[in-house]
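Sequence in, structure out.
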Amino acid sequence: MEVKNCKECKRLFNYIGGPRLCPDCKAKLEEKFLEVKRFIEDNKNAPIAVVSEEMNVSVQQINQWVREERLIFAEGSAVVLDCENCGAPIRTGRFCEKCKGEMVNRLGGIYHKHEESVRKEGKEKARMRFLDN
């Protein structure tokens, strides 16, 4: 465990991981998140700039929550994001469903290839060997 300064209030705290915020600032940020979420639910067609201004939260913070898939904009909302891989329009996250599926398949294929090579190595090592006289 390290001791760091909170990037919001500058107080020292025991840093474990994640954003460099003390527990108090994390709790305040979570409260603000819930307020923003309620505002978006009540104002489904509000652009991010309006949400930012009305809720006194940076556009960057709202975008972070959207990319983390904590906030989802309604169907037909003025807010449209682009998939970071193919550029398709999405409402939350970083990638569209098609790209997510392709990534999962690629990663799954790599995992299975690795698993097979480990099995082959294990069989080679486990073979019985005889010494010639």
